[in-house]
Specification:
It is built from 10 helices and 15 strands. 31% of the residues lie in helices and 22% in strands. It is globular, with a radius of gyration of 23 Å. It has 3 domains: 2-89, no CATH class; 112-131 and 218-371, ATP-grasp fold, B domain (D-amino Acid Aminotransferase, Chain A, domain 1, 2-Layer Sandwich), CATH 3.30.470; 135-214, no CATH class. Helix 1 (2-34) runs antiparallel to helix 2.
């Protein structure tokens, strides 16, 4: 039986190798050569001396031959800028994601179900003594389950009896998709600040299985930075394969902007790195290219990022390591809000992305080699 499993695993790897070299790589090379303009973007650093278009395309061709795909974060990392030797400091996403998933998901007893299901996550977080948003209702239309009492009610009865501000989230949603803010005042319904009727709410909730949570009240300093969204830290913890100790990788604060009600960069938010010792934000914040490039000040509040210091930094790091110690995962990307009294754990992600944690100033290749390989 053991020999059969090894043979099957070897066959799967061999087939994947053939598929990659005989189909995926040639297909991506053809896409690059036939449509080079699709892979030429705006530089995040126009003040720096940039490589020629030919050199950029040559770099991307090299990425395909080595890793199977272009580097979709090439411009974000500043690899279009003429800098000697910096390319080797950055981990290509294809290499990272394959290794991340192998370490996190190879065991059938991994804890990904706790991280990927927002209801399970909240139950587990509270069980180990951590603060997390209060879960109010589990919604699988037409049924609304009130989680405090276990009572099943209709949506109409829920609206009649509920008062307050809630966040409605797809149970397994990612990147801020499907989230909307729900406020109920005297049977009046407001969705993302606009008044709506029961039919509109019903239609929104028919899009999947939803969890309704109480809205988090964030620290006053984060309200001053941007009050339109709950701004969260994406903190990454990694279990050392040799010692078993849990370390923290360079992490980021995500801040909503320009009227957005969520902080995700995929929805127009800004990512800003910070010093893990002091909590002081870096000078430069990054948009995704479809929303902008870089900024040193928040576009709404006008606060300079380099003057802002995160509250509760030491407690946040200590609690994230503590939470990780209960879970059979190698690495976790935590989404953590910061309230007046301390950290509030929103969710954890086994499929976190490395791109936000690598920026123009530093790649993570050294940390990747040290912590993701024995």
């Amino acid at each position: 039986m053991a020999m059969r499993k090894k043979l099957l695993a070897f066959t799967e790897r061999l087939l994947a190798l053939f598929l990659d070299n005989l189909y995926v790589k040639p297909k991506n090379v053809c896409r690059l050569l036939l449509h080079p303009g699709r892979f030429l973007g705006r530089s995040y650093f126009p003040e720096q001396k940039s490589k020629s278009k030919t050199a950029v395309l040559a770099d991307q061709l090299r990425n395909i031959l080595l890793y199977g795909d272009v580097d979709h974060f090439y411009y974000f990392y500043g690899l279009d800028v003429k800098r000697s030797g910096r390319r080797r400091d950055y981990v290509h996403y294809a290499v990272f994601s394959k290794r991340r998933d192998r370490l996190n998901l190879s065991s059938p007893f991994n804890s990904s179900c706790i991280l990927r299901n927002k209801l399970y996550f909240g139950i587990f977080a509270r069980a180990v003594g951590l603060t997390t948003p209060a879960n109010v209702a589990y919604v699988r239309m037409p049924d609304v389950l009130l989680l405090e009492t276990g009572e099943h009610v209709s949506l109409e009865k829920f609206v009649d009896t509920c008062e307050g501000n809630l966040f409605c989230k797809l149970l397994d949603g990612e990147c801020g998709t499907g989230i909307f803010e729900l406020e109920i005042r005297g049977r009046r319904i407001f969705i993302d600040g606009a008044e709506a009727d029961a039919g509109i709410l019903h239609a929104r909730l028919c899009g999947g299985v939803f969890l309704m949570q109480e809205r988090v009240k964030q620290h006053h300093s984060l309200d001053e930075l941007y009050a339109g969204a709950v701004n969260t830290v994406r903190l990454v913890t990694v279990r050392d394969l040799r010692s078993g100790g849990i370390e923290v990788l360079p992490s980021i604060l995500r801040v909503g902007a320009n009227g957005s009600r969520v902080d995700n960069t995929s929805q127009g938010g800004i990512a800003v790195g910070f010093d893990l010792q002091t909590g002081r934000l870096n000078e430069l914040g990054f948009f995704k290219p479809e929303f902008g490039l870089t900024t040193t000040v928040h576009p709404d509040s006008g606060i300079r990022f380099g003057t802002f210091v995160l509250p509760h930094l030491d407690t946040m790091i200590e609690q994230a390591k503590y939470f990780h110690s209960f879970l059979g995962m190698h690495s976790i990307g935590w989404d953590i809000a910061l309230g007046e009294m301390g950290p509030i754990f929103i969710e954890g992600n086994d499929n976190w992305e490395i791109n936000g944690h690598q920026d123009y100033e530093h790649g993570l290749m050294a940390d990747f080699r040290r912590l993701f390989y024995e």
